[in-house]
Write a structure and sequence with these properties.
- By secondary structure, the chain is an alpha/beta fold.
- A 5-stranded parallel beta sheet has the order 2-6-1-7-8. It has a 3-stranded antiparallel beta sheet with strand order 3-4-5, with helices on one face.
- The protein has a single domain (5-213), classed as P-loop containing nucleotide triphosphate hydrolases (Rossmann fold).
- The radius of gyration is 17 Å and the shape is globular.
- The chain is built from 9 helices and 8 strands.
- Bound molecules: cytidine-5'-monophosphate.
- Cytidine-5'-monophosphate binds at residues 12, 34-35, 38-39, 95, 98-99, 102, 128-131, 179, 183.
- The site of cytidine-5'-monophosphate (C5P) has 15 residues, from helix 2, helix 4 and helix 8.
């Protein structure tokens, strides 16, 4: 029997990361933060002197990306070449750089196996942009989270502030809009809900409410599948 997967896709600031972590913890499943891989890849390219425009070199770097994830109770530490880069990759600059390398087909292709290797018993919650469409098209449960652009900018602002990163909300809203545009309009794996995903607009929902709704969806789909 294949290991069950729940995919949670959506644009930046839709709450995917928070919801995916909370649901994974409830279910006792593994968690894949696929965005972290693209963020680390962008940083690795910078540190290893790889020009992101050189798609072959970027693909090679992605295939051999020296990244490791260390799980703790409420966080995942991300290591690049053994160096803890968790805080560095969380900035908006890192997010923007990630969305540039993420548009390169060779890089996406090279990261596929690594992402699929996270599918381990008892189950996986996979968070990203193309989890339900490309990486785990056969996932048992698929959710696509959205929220208004204004609400997403507010959430991101709060999240960054809590992490001690200071940003201007207007710049942030503009950067989010640019990143969404790039993610949604790239030719490879553009951001879009899978045909069989359940789309949830979380603009007026709190975290607990979204988690409960996702758990309900899991329950319902489990029932329907008998
Ligand atoms: O989710 P997060 O904000 O960490 O993602 C950073 C960037 O990585 C996104 O803007 C997107 O361009 C890219 N990404 C992607 N596919 C994924 C996850 C992230 O293209 N599955």
């Amino acid at each position: 029997m294949s290991v069950p997967v729940l995919t949670i896709d959506g644009p930046s600031g839709s709450g995917k990361g928070t919801i995916a972590r909370a649901v994974a913890r409830r279910l006792g499943w593994h968690l894949l933060d696929s965005g972290a891989l693209y963020r680390v890849l962008a940083l690795a390219a910078e540190r290893h002197g790889v020009d992101p425009a050189d798609s072959t070199a970027l693909g090679a770097l992605a295939r051999n990306l020296p990244v490791a994830f260390a799980e703790s109770d409420d966080d995942t530490r991300v290591l690049l070449d053994g160096d803890d880069v968790t805080a560095i990759i969380r900035s908006e600059t890192a997010g923007n750089a990630a969305s540039r390398v993420a548009a390169v087909p060779e890089a996406r292709e090279a990261l596929l196996d690594r992402q699929r290797a996270f599918r381990q018993p008892p189950g996986l919650v996979a968070d990203g942009r193309d989890m339900g469409t490309e990486v785990f098209p056969d996932a048992d449960y698929k959710v696509f989270l959205t929220a208004s652009a204004e609400e997403r900018a507010k959430r991101r602002y709060k999240q960054l502030k809590e992490k001690g990163i200071s940003v201007n909300i207007r710049d942030l809203a503009r950067e989010i809009a640019e990143r969404d545009d790039r993610d949604a309009n790239r030719p490879v794996s553009p951001l879009r809900p899978a045909d069989d995903a359940i789309v949830l607009d979380t603009s007026d929902m709190g975290i607990d409410e979204v988690v409960a709704r996702v758990m309900e969806i899991l329950g319902k789909q489990v029932e329907t599948r008998g």
